[in-house]
Write a structure and sequence with these properties.
With 662 residues, the protein is of the alpha/beta class. The protein is built from 23 helices and 22 strands. The protein folds into three domains: 148 residues, no CATH class; 121 residues, NAD(P)-binding Rossmann-like Domain (Rossmann fold), CATH 3.40.50.720; 356 residues, Rossmann fold.
């Protein structure tokens, strides 16, 4: 083995000049062997004459073709199909050249004798091709043997799901990676035609029937999912089964994301928790959405947030005339700019305006409306973090209620075609200030739409979309859990029974676009969020996906419900029901209708409380507007003890504060 190592330079590749020399020696030996076979091992003068007369020409011809096809340039230990094709081209065209030389020699020879008999050329082609390929395969096998003997650490046993090209390429990358001691023990595939066949001597198994036996037989450590035509549900079944048997799961990106068409070992990543919650791709009415957005001036508020930034990304695919991306965070707008330059450079430079503005500033927003004249508004700007808003009700109403009212009123003034508001499931039977503020915003835009219909002035259609938590959004549990896992724990969960609905950010934004297109005005669209997920189960799965053991490598700690936090989320109020739409994941919520004049007056009264900064008075007024708002685990629970909240209640609270100030 030590002599084999001498063949390699410092980069563990055989030097090119040495490969070239070996190839020439092989070609010379192949020709001599062909001559010997042609004359049936009868060593007489004819053999020596044929060899010494023709061999220099053979070497020159093969040198030319080996140089042309750069046969020496391949890394021998990575020999593959392309190298075999080069060998065939080189040997075949060399043989054709020798036949051509023989033809001209016969034409001009007085006795018409052959320079190189055709039988020798054929034998030379077969033997040289075989020996050149064998040389490379021998070195490759020897290198792998040397690698396995020198690889450090305990051997990791892999199985690969997907016995296609991506699966075969993944196996090759694992074989070539020297940093870890790896072994591919099995392939899995759902195609019954492939079951019990083999690739490189490795058997292909049926996952559903054979997985447990393969784990026991090979002591399987990790399963790698390669790009196949797997549905999201099937992918989740496979991952769940692996987690149940403590088998790590990794995944390979789609072929189009490989670096320069080549898979890198570093691209084989751990599966994300999103893969266990993500659902099959939503079918959108792209033609209808395009007819609404193409060539239009579109405004997105909260454009640098989790939902807003994805909305911007998706809207750019529909080529708007102008896209106004509005946000109050300078740093987030800066990040959004770089993201859009990476993903949509041409469209971004053509039509996008990044605007730093506070939606609660009426003068600033009016100036933007006057300057750009938007036609479609997607309103995603809001404060959304429950505990923070519980401690800062005045800011919740200023942005979530006042900002929404401001944009909605301006939409009327400037004849906006559609105003699509992004709401939340926390607005249903709210137990916190944030949810109540979003419910008041819903009530305002819905009653405003109804008022326009009654007065036959419905130029602007107001549409509300309501959904639960989105995976990976800022402040959500998944980024928090990821950070805690990376830091060694503990993972903090507020309550062992707490559940939430989840969907991915792209899915949520697709449904917002679809609902915005289908909306006629006044609807509250409720999205199919699937099944609610226990947060504790989510945490446990994330631990397993990280390759850690709960209770050994990391712990879970319960911290208690936060102010305003529900154990279970809802999507519809008590007594409400839904109507189906043409889209199976979108329903219309049947909700209580409100008189706009009353809503307008109560909303103005609420916003008028901002300057006094009496948080109890603000929350009391919110409970008056939204009677179903019952605080949980909050200082505002005391307000729920009153049978009825009225203007007198609020005035009394303000009076008490005034006396304290004096």
């Amino acid at each position: 083995m030590k002599y084999l190592k001498l063949l390699f330079n410092h980069s563990n590749s055989i030097p090119r000049w040495l490969i070239f020399a070996f190839d020439l020696a092989i070609c010379a030996a192949a020709f001599v062997l062909s001559v010997v076979l042609r004359y049936s091992f009868k060593f007489d003068s004819r053999i020596f004459e044929a060899v010494f007369r023709v061999l220099p020409v053979v070497i020159i011809v093969k040198t030319l073709f080996m140089t042309y096809f750069r046969l020496y340039s391949g890394i021998v230990r990575h020999t593959g199909v392309q190298d075999g094709i080069k060998i065939l081209y080189t040997t075949f065209l060399s043989s054709l050249a020798l036949i051509t030389i023989d033809f001209f020699y016969r034409s001009f020879s007085p006795d018409k004798s052959a320079y190189i008999p055709l039988s020798i050329v054929v034998l030379d082609f077969i033997i040289s091709a075989f020996l050149l390929a064998s040389f490379r395969m021998t070195v490759k096998v020897a290198f792998l043997k040397m690698y396995y003997q020198t690889a450090k650490g305990e051997q990791i046993t892999y199985a690969i799901f997907g016995a296609g090209e991506a699966g075969i390429t993944t196996k090759k990358k694992l074989d070539q990676h020297r940093a870890i001691n790896t072994k591919v023990a099995a392939f899995f595939d759902d195609n019954p035609k492939k079951i019990r066949k083999s690739i490189d001597g490795i058997e292909i198994f049926n996952f559903d029937n054979d997985f447990e036996n393969v784990i026991k037989k090979y002591n399987l450590d990790t399963l790698i999912l390669t790009p196949t035509n797997l549905s999201k549900n099937r992918k989740q079944e496979i991952i769940e089964k692996c987690l149940n048997f403590n088998v790590n799961v990794r995944t390979v990106p789609p072929v189009e994301k490989w670096i320069n068409g080549e898979l890198s070992f570093n691209q084989i990543k751990n599966v994300n928790i999103e893969d266990l919650i993500e659902r099959d791709t939503i079918e959108l009415d792209k033609q209808g959405i395009s007819s609404q957005l193409n060539g239009k001036v579109v405004m997105v508020t909260g454009a640098a947030g989790s939902i807003g930034s994805e909305m911007v990304n998706q809207i750019l695919n529909f080529r708007p005339k102008k896209l106004l991306a509005i946000d109050s965070s300078e740093i987030k707008l800066y990040d959004l700019e770089h993201e859009l330059l990476d993903r949509h450079k041409n469209e971004f430079l053509r039509c996008t305006e990044l605007i730093l503005a506070d939606i609660g500033n009426e003068n600033r927003m009016r100036n933007i409306f006057e300057k750009f004249r938007p036609e479609i508004v997607y309103h995603a700007a809001a404060y959304k973090h429950v505990p923070l808003m519980e401690n800062n009700p005045s800011e919740a109403i200023k942005t979530n209620v006042g900002g929404t009212k401001n944009i909605a009123d301006l939409s009327i003034d400037f004849g906006i075609e559609k105003f699509v508001m992004v709401s939340t499931d926390k607005a249903v039977n709210p137990t916190n200030v944030m949810g109540a503020s979003k419910r008041i915003a819903e009530i305002y835009v819905q009653s405003l739409n109804n008022e326009l219909l009654l007065n036959q002035k419905a130029n602007t259609k107001f549409i509300t979309t309501r959904f639960g938590n989105v995976l990976g959004s800022s402040g959500s549990v998944i980024p928090k859990f990821r950070k805690q896992i990376n830091e060694g724990g503990p993972i903090t969960v507020t309550h062992p029974e707490i559940t939430r609905y989840f969907m991915t950010i792209p899915e949520a934004c697709q449904l917002v676009l679809e609902a915005g297109y289908m909306g006629k005005g006044g609807e509250i669209f409720v999205f199919d969020m699937g099944k609610s997920v226990k947060i504790i189960d989510l945490a446990k799965k994330m631990v397993k996906l990280s390759g850690l053991t709960l209770g050994k490598d990391i712990n879970i700690a319960y911290t208690g419900l936060r102010p305003g936090e529900k154990i279970y989320e809802e999507l519809l109020n008590d007594g409400e029901n839904t109507l189906p739409t043409h889209h199976p994941k979108i329903m219309i919520g049947k909700v209580r209708l409100y008189n706009f004049k009353e809503v307008q007056n109560s909303t103005n009264d609420l916003l008028g409380l901002y300057n006094n900064q009496n948080q109890m008075a603000i929350v009391a007024k919110m409970k008056e507007i939204v009677p179903e708002f019952q605080s949980k685990n909050s200082v505002y629970e005391s307000l729920d003890k009153k049978v009825e909240l009225s203007k007198t209640t609020v005035e009394n609270l303000l009076s008490k504060q005034s006396k304290l100030n004096d």
